[in-house]
Amino acid sequence: MTATPRSWTPERPIGGTSVQDRRPMLRLLRLASPLAPRLALAVLFGVLAAGSAIGLTATSAWLISRAAQHPPVLYLTVAIVAVRTFGIARGVFRYVERLAGHDAAFGVLTRLRVLAYQRLERLAPAALPVLRAGDLVGRFVADVDAALDVLVRVVLPYIVAALIGAATAGFLGALLPGAGVVLAAGLLLVAVGVPAIQHTVARRADRRTAPLRGELSAATVDLLRGLPDLVAFGAARRRLAALAETDDRLRRATARSAAGVGLGAGLVALATGACVWAGLALGAGAVRAGTLNGVVLAVVVLTPFAVFDTVSGLPAAAAQLATARAALGRVFSLLDQPDPVSEPAAPAPLPADHRLELIGVSARWPGGPDVLHDVDLALSPGRRVAVVGPSGSGKSTLAAVLVRFLDPSAGKVTLGGVDTRDLAGDDVRTVVGLLTDDARLFDTTIRDNLRIGDRGADDERLRAALADARLLEWVDSLPNGLDTMVGEQGSRLSGGQRRRLALARALLAEFPILILDEPTEHLDEETADALTADLLAVTRGRTTVLITHRLTGLAEVDEIVVVDGGRIVQRGGHDDLVAVDGTYRRMCQRHS
């Protein structure tokens, strides 16, 4: 387990993303295949519910028409019972259909969400900086939820409409062939033609809705996270204006999509009226010709109302499908991101020897060129090394390679003589821990934040770790002590306190090898110097790599490695490096 969540921005941005999946619907249906029996049950009861509604209308039409002839009441008894039966059955079948359909859809949603979470865990942190935090949340929440909409509002309604439409057209065709043909044509227009026209009108809007929603989410999260700095530099109004412009684009896209749905609803009403009038005209002619009973004419005329009521939601379902396809495409494009590291099929056992060594290592972030070039570094147990260099020189990439967030593109990294590519990544990270400058604190107590390092730690061990990190006196001064809430991302603590609490958590995990990546970044000089001194004191005797651009206190480490342009350009002790003209001396001069 690492000391912090796996997230930071590499020196070079990730250049490539996977191609949008062009068949997200097929992939979703394959994902739903284990739940096919539940979906089939939902379809069955959906057909029964729709059939009951149509049967209610047709039977009622016959009953009213026949009752107008004033026959003996016994002639109407069966129809009366049928009307009651259909009326009750429609509600019961609809309830069971919704229950079965949503049960199956939530099962698929659960599978997709678990897949997305597992994929994010595999991609973090190397393959995620290409996505902004808000957009990532949008893909994981709203876009994944599109699977539920597709199954409940698109797939099931279309299957039910197809089956019940064909059955009803056949029924009317048996009574009056012309009316059956007209109804079939009207249903085909509503199911296929209207969605096609609707999609033509709002095609661009449907495609843009999901990305714009993700963009709006990302912009909102960025605004909230950076609000203090934006206000301080007078940039809040510009960011709010940009956010409002994104919201306006989303509103316009949604309005265009809604206009397409409205057009579809109008065309459905026209198709319904056309089928009713055509049935009336054909039926009246058949009655005059003596080929159709006058009582049955009411069935021919009124049944299309019930059928079109069943299929009237198909244009809206088609619009939902267009939006959901874009959303699911974004989800599957995330799932299709290549692994930043390859896990062995049969991992080698973790060696007892914790000597970590880089031999001719080059490394790159996914989609980019090599950032590290031919790096050699040996970390024997207890050795402390400082890695320094200008920003963008490859220091954080080196940290990612050491903790196996990245695999080398050339050379190899060995742990106890075993290539780390032959070891499970999680096994490597039980030995090599990472503490970064953005170590995340969760909105819970000090105790719970510390126990991320060791869930079984008692208060005595927690207090010992806080003492090593020079925080125990401060924690003891708090009214609630270890039960003090730290706020979202440690907002109730100072910058130095957040870093020291993260350090205590890392110490509690007792990693044999500890990587400290810019632990004093964004701190004032006095706090940074004090924290560096404490870090070097508390890690004495532990294999440690201190990655920093600050040069204070580096005389305490065993070796200083100077990285520039992704290569090791100097190495040695502080006094030796200052004595020669090179990158380290120039850094010292600038620091002074």
TrEMBL record:
Chain segments annotated as transmembrane: 39-62, 74-93, 150-172, 178-197, 258-280, 286-308
Sequence ranges assigned to domain ABC transporter in this UniProt record: 356-590
Subcellular location: Cell membrane
Membrane as UniProt keyword: yes
Coiled-coil portions: none
Protein keywords: ATP-binding, Membrane, Nucleotide-binding, Transmembrane, Transmembrane helix
PROSITE patterns (alphabetical): ABC_TM1F, ABC_TRANSPORTER_1, ABC_TRANSPORTER_2
InterPro entries, per database record: AAA+_ATPase, ABC1_TM_dom, ABC1_TM_sf, ABC_CydC/D, ABC_transporter-like_ATP-bd, ABC_transporter-like_CS, P-loop_NTPase, Type_1_exporter
Membrane disposition: Multi-pass membrane protein
Pfam families named among the record's database cross-references: ABC_tran (PF00005)
Name of the featured protein: Thiol reductant ABC exporter subunit CydC
